[in-house]
Amino acid sequence: MPQPQDITVFYEPPDLEFDAIKLVVTLPTFRRPDCLTETLKSLTKQVPARQFAVIVMENDTAGMAGAEAAKAFFIQNNVCGLVILAHERGNCSAYNAGWHTAMQRFMRLEAIAVIDDDEQAATGWLANLLATQAATGADCVGGPQVPVFEAPPSVPLHRHPVFMPHYRQTGPVPILYSSGNVLISRRILDAMPQPYLDTAFNFIGGGDSDFYRRCRAKGFRFAWCAEATVSEIIPTRRTQQSWINARSQRNGAISTLIEHRQNPGIGGRARTLLKSLALLGASPFRGVQLWRQTGLVNTLPHHFHVAIGRLLAEFGKIGEQYRNPESN
Predict the structure, then answer these.
(1) Alpha-carbon torsion 174, 178, 179, 181, what sign?
(2) What is the predicted pLDDT for the residue at 49?
(3) 185 - beta bridge partners?
(4) Whole-number pLDDT of residue 261
(5) Which pLDDT tens digit goes with each residue over 274-305?
(6) 225 with 285, same domain?
(7) Is residue 1 in a domain?
(8) Domain end call among 205, 238, 271
(9) Is residue 2 part of a domain?
(10) SS3 labels along 171-200
(11) Burial label, 196 (beta-carbon count in 10 A; 0-12, 13-18, 19+)
């Protein structure tokens, strides 16, 4: 198995029985040690039908706050798992390091689950993901990331498309979009080339969406589990309209970049450009429709900013805010 990047094991319990583990939870972290500890606490409350291990991927190898916090928590709470250092900076690189390590160290692995360090899992999170996978036969099962706002916003932002889950009902779905709450089968990890997530998306996001589209092209199936919830902490700065608009633009830019990869060449680029222009033209009408659906006046510019983001990506003008690792 090829080594995708520079990975170091920072902490490994001396009595870890690798052959006994068939399920691994991977948890990337970057400069949020307190939030990471809360995420780990939520994982200790899981009651799945099988034993699982946790892999924490520290992506700030200069500061090491997450690695130190995870090691202390592992020792104090007798957590089964590893703390590793993903030396290559970037979100996709951190995921790749964890998934590669899970495949390399846990030879009887059947699936990995993924959660982020600004999330806390509901008690039945893992059990519900596994139950939906068993019921649907899906290769990949996602769940909702429920926003918990650091400061109560003046309007119900949980109804804004930027914060809403993509699906509402449990069952098969055409594709997933986020890696912050997902269960991925061993079949996918065996079939997909490494590195799993394209590191070109490291600092703009979208590596997970690109990965799922490539999985779908290989015939893998997806499902949604509405009961497998994680709560995502939303800092106050992310409730500001400027941040929401920038996130809408980023989502549009990501969709264009992925479409370019799917349809390379002049013909494909032309179709994508025409689609972007059409979405820009329709954005005022779609914005009014979204306002009526949600009751939120600040959803009016959402589709406009998505279209602007698509057009910026068409001409390689992706804003520097998309490249900031702390802007995610």
Answers:
(1) negative
(2) 67
(3) 111
(4) 85
(5) 999 999 999 999 999 999 999 999 999 999 99
(6) no
(7) no
(8) 238
(9) no
(10) EEECCCCCCCEEEEEHHHHHHCCCCCCCHH
(11) buried
Domain count for the chain: 2
Distance (Å, rounded) from C-alpha 211 to C-alpha 224?
Answer: 17
pLDDT above 90: residue 327: no
- Residue 244's identity, in one-letter code, is I
Of 238, 269, 285, the residue at which a domain comes to its end is: 238
Is-contact 311 276, C-beta < 8 A? yes
Q: What does the block give as tokens for 322?
A: 């998309």
Please report whether residue 186 resides in a domain: yes
User: What is the C-alpha to C-alpha distance for residues 68 and 145, in angstroms, rounded to an integer?
Assistant: 26
**Residue 233: how many other CB atoms lie within 10 Å:** 18
CB 97 within 8 A of CB 197: no
**Surface-to-core class of residue 172, CB atoms within 10 Å of its CB (0-12 exposed, 13-18 middle, 19+ buried):** middle
List pLDDT tens digits, range 221-279.
999 999 999 999 999 999 999 999 999 999 999 999 998 888 888 888 899 999 999 99
* Residue 173 confidence (pLDDT) above 80: yes
**How many other CB atoms sit within 10 Å of the CB of residue 50?**
13
Do 227 and 255 share a structural domain?
A: no
What is the number of other CB atoms lying within 10 angstroms of the CB of residue 39? 25
**What is the domain range of residue 251?**
240-327
User: Contact, 83 vs 56, CB < 8 A?
Assistant: yes
Same domain for 226 and 246: no
88 and 160 both lie in a single domain: yes
pTM of the model: 0.92
Domain-located, residue 24: yes
- Residue 42: closest CA among 100, 153, 118: 118
Question: Is the confidence at residue 318, as pLDDT, over 70?
Answer: no
Confidence category of residue 89, pLDDT binned at 50, 70, 90: very high
The residue behind tokens 């996130």 is 247
Evaluated on CA atoms 113, 118, 124, 129, the torsion sign reads negative
Q: Choose among 151, 157, 146, 152: nearest CA to 297.
A: 157
DSSP string, 207-253: HHHHHHHHHHHTT--EEE-TT--EEEEE-GGGGSHHHHHHHHHHHHH
